[in-house]
């Protein structure tokens, strides 16, 4: 179980702040993007140390871990859920009052389940639609859109459903987890990032909208390139928090 103690040493706090500064400096050198530290399997005290240094956006991969940390950490944290979310866990996710963004939407069923269980909120819950830009079987997400796509294609169908039938949700953008190979080859434009950008263009065409849709692409290995190529938000874990223990540790 994740350590939920909020006590941290000055040395650990300084290490985390230095790591954050390094990532933020790298982002600022090439552009501008929201940095979401992903603290998967790290103690709640690590988040508290960064919170005390002024940071507010944090993300988790496991829904129960996010729920547990949200209960003990300050209520003005803006939580991002970036892991796979099954519809039977929608009620658990919706129970976090300061959940800012669900980044991995990929079905109408999940949208309806989250909408059903959402409590009263001052603002709609932000969501990203996850796109499987690399077409890998091991990755979640919907197929990319192309110039020949129609409103019946899954990503467009989900976006339209959120817009028309889920008043408690706001489609904020698109998210992808690119292939390992593309993420480790900075010598050329990342094809997964290019695919996500073109999917956004085609989705706006199908929605007949000029909405500013965000793009969430880039993690520890490729966030600099992602920002260069137009990412609105990057998810960085090990570069900030260090190597993680095994999940069952």
TrEMBL record:
Pfam families: Ala_racemase_N. Gene3D superfamilies: Alanine racemase. Its cofactor is pyridoxal 5'-phosphate. It comes from the Eukaryota. GO terms for molecular function: pyridoxal phosphate binding. The modification N6-(pyridoxal phosphate)lysine is found at residue 40. Keywords: Pyridoxal phosphate. InterPro entries: Ala_racemase_N, PLP-binding_barrel, PyrdxlP_homeostasis. Residues 16-245 form the Alanine racemase N-terminal domain. Pyridoxal 5'-phosphate (PLP)-binding protein, which may be involved in intracellular homeostatic regulation of pyridoxal 5'-phosphate (PLP), the active form of vitamin B6. Belongs to the pyridoxal phosphate-binding protein YggS/PROSC family. PANTHER family: PROLINE SYNTHETASE CO-TRANSCRIBED BACTERIAL HOMOLOG PROTEIN, PYRIDOXAL PHOSPHATE HOMEOSTASIS PROTEIN. This is Pyridoxal phosphate homeostasis protein. It comes from Kockovaella imperatae. The lineage of its organism: Eukaryota, Fungi, Dikarya, Basidiomycota, Agaricomycotina.
């Amino acid at each position: 179980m994740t350590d939920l103690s909020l006590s941290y040493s000055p040395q650990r706090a300084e290490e985390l702040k230095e790591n954050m500064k390094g990532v933020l400096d790298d982002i600022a050198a090439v552009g501008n993007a929201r940095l979401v530290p992903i603290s998967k399997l790290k103690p709640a005290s690590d988040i508290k140390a960064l919170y005390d240094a002024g940071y507010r956006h944090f993300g988790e991969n496991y829904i129960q871990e996010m729920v547990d940390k949200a209960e003990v950490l300050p209520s003005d944290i803006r939580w991002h859920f970036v892991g796979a979310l099954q519809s039977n866990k929608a009620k658990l996710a919706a129970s976090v009052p300061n959940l800012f963004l669900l980044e991995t939407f990929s079905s109408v069923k999940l949208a309806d389940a989250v909408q059903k269980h959402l409590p009263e909120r001052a603002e709609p819950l932000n969501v990203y639609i996850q796109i499987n830009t690399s077409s890998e079987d091991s990755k979640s997400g919907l197929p990319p859109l192309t110039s020949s796509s129609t409103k019946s294609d899954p990503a467009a169908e989900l976006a339209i459903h959120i817009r028309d039938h889920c008043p408690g949700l706001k489609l904020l953008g698109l998210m992808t987890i690119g292939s390992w190979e593309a993420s480790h080859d900075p010598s050329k434009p990342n094809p997964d990032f290019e695919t996500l950008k073109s999917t956004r263009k085609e989705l706006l065409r199908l929605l007949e909208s000029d909405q500013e849709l965000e793009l969430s692409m880039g993690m520890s290995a490729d966030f600099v390139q992602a920002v260069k190529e137009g990412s609105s938000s990057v998810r960085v874990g090990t570069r900030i928090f260090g190597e993680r223990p095994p999940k069952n540790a």
